[in-house]
Amino acid sequence: MQSCALCLKEATLCDSHLLPKATYRLIRKSAAQRPVIMTPKLISAMDLQVHQHLLCVDCEQRFSRAERYALSQCCRGNGFCLQALLETLKPLPEATEPLPYPSVGHDVDIDALVYFSSSLLWRASVAWWRMWDRPFKLDLGPKYQEEFRRYLRGEIGFPDNAAVWISVTSRKKPELACIGPHLHNKNAYYQYEMQVFGVRWSMFIGGQIDAIVRRMCTLRSPERFIYVSESVEQMVIRGGGKLIGTARTAKNVQP
Q1: Which residue, 65, 152, 160, 184, has fewest beta-carbon neighbours within 10 Å?
Q2: Which residues span the domain enclosing 118?
Q3: pTM for this predicted structure
């Protein structure tokens, strides 16, 4: 028996994944090969999954609904629900990249999408994870780590000093790529990002978040803005390009 990281109760822990297990299955099904794992030292097609015993059964199930919904909205190779919805809407007039689309009143569960991204961010901060030979862990600090834990437990609302922007790629056939939670920028506040199959979540945390970032938050704005941006796909290309320049590419990676 160990302590569950979310509810803090003693329990038999499940084998919890950082990125949903279903993402690996979808990549194998769509690409007809094992997922390509990219690290600073090696690029290889392998069935490596980032997981460890972290949550009890009840807390694992608490996360599962938002995970299923989020993955249903991302690109799935033969469909992209969130992109299809935005194609029926109009962005704010005279807006520039990234284009904000008001989604309020339409068939999209923003709360579930934000909960999903928050669960990824929090999981990455409460334990050391290992990607092949590379251990990693995000540092949210004890204050925000605890606030996100309580939010995910349903004890409090989304943290006051946090904002989230959800962006969808403008590319019609995006790469089926996942980028785990990572620190993207640090100035007066922190900006973390993560990406799953054509959808990017940018999480801003800190007491000095820009007023415009707060105003345009996907969760808190009355319009519930979702963004369309070319930079979503560029994030995959840019990150992969950097690793290709430093890592060894295994022979089992298809060109």
Answers
A1: 160
A2: 2-249
A3: 0.88
